[in-house]
Amino acid sequence: MTAVSDWCASICPYCGVGCGVEVGVTGDRVVAVRGMKDHPVNRGDLCALGANLLGMLHADGRLLYPMKRVGDRFERVGWEAARRTVAHRIREIIDEHGPDAFAMYVSASEYVEEYCRGPRAGLWCRLPPVRL
Fold first, then answer.
1. Could you count the other beta carbons within 10 Å of the beta carbon of residue 123?
2. How far apart are alpha carbons 9 and 29 in whole angstroms?
3. I need a surface site. Which of 43, 44, 103, 110 has the fewest CB within 10 A?
4. Please, are residues 22 and 7 in contact by the beta-carbon 8 Å criterion?
5. How confident is the model over 84-114, as pLDDT tens digits?
6. Can you tell me the mean pLDDT for 60-88?
7. Model confidence at 61, in pLDDT bands (50, 70, 90)?
8. What is the pTM of this model?
9. What domains are defined for the chain?
10. H or E element: which one contains 113?
């Protein structure tokens, strides 16, 4: 395990429970994640997802930027092009099938960014935002 130079407080992004996590960083790299012992929600415990945050962050093949299917493969596209494509497809679906043809599942974890303000923002706020 790599030595941790600093611990940053954050909130687990995987569900709406809002478990406190401490994120260990060295330079700009996340090297450890642990439950926040004094957090009133989880008191240091983490579920299977929370306990594997580090593994998911550094997983091989993790999607780091938007991709678009072209034939039988995927090509990288810019964030703005991806946003426009998604918005256009949503509009097409609604126009063709009506407003009840489209729904989104959004968990309370979508609001995690509200907990991440200032120069010591948590791990998840260092990732590029996606706003549709």
1. 23
2. 15
3. 103
4. yes
5. 999 999 999 999 999 999 988 766 555 554 5
6. 93
7. confident
8. 0.59
9. 1-62+107-132 (3.30.200.210), 63-101 (no CATH)
10. none
